[in-house]
Amino acid sequence: MTATPPAAARAPRRTKATALVVLVALPLLLALAGPLIAPHTVDTPVTAPFAAPGEGAVLGGDQLGRDVLSRVLHGGGLLIAGALLVATVTTGAAALIGCVAVLRPALGRTVERAADLAILLPSLLGIMLIALAWPGGGRWAVLAAAIVLGVPYAIRIVASAASPLATAGYVEAALARGESTGHIALREILPNLRATVLTLFGLRFVEAVYVISMAGFLQIGPQPPASDWSLMIRENAPGILLNPWAVLAPSLAVAAVAVTVTLVTHTLAPDSTAKAVTRS
Prior knowledge:
Layout: E1 2-3, H1 6-37, H2 68-74, H3 77-101, H4 105-120, H5 123-133, H6 139-162, H7 169-176, H8 181-189, H9 194-217, H10 229-236, H11 245-268, E2 277-278
Antiparallel strand pairs: 1-2
């Protein structure tokens, strides 16, 4: 039985993680810094409606002759910021409540029932209900709906991962010492769920991107003439045969952000199945 050198074992993983972080940084930086490098303003017509790509408009024009590239560069900042907010709040709440739920059976049963109800309610229906109850909410109503519908399900995932740890020896020792529930949840259980929490954050981010995009496509949230990727897809769909880039560019932007964030969180998550020794 030979021990694997920790540094040698971690080096390839760190290299891969660094490469993926750089990869995900590119679409995120383009989305956040897009307004600074956009060649035109978002509301100025520069070509004929649905004009093909050409000089002065690399990706052609949209339904009003506005530069597609400029609108794509302007349209991702609020979407990414909203998805980050939803993922952070949802994951943070799930991590805290989920770890406490496994130590308090009554809370655990309540969380499980709430998650069952949240799963039964379609995201689109929930967004529409909250948007109707909050007519002036706009994008904030969509973010609130994504958080409210996502937290119970996320808590159930964390609680399921934390359940085996609740009977671990170090947790029982902490209980015997009289440690508080909050101390055990945050200091004994949560540090051992890093892989679950990080993976959950990536999944919640992707889910938030698609939920916000779906709401924008249905014009729940951003309204014309705002430059928003999901709104661009809806507005330019009738002219996809004239200038496909008016639809493809924002669609690819949404997919690129979602896929790269998923890859990075998956790579950065600790490998819970890795073994410290190998048999020779």
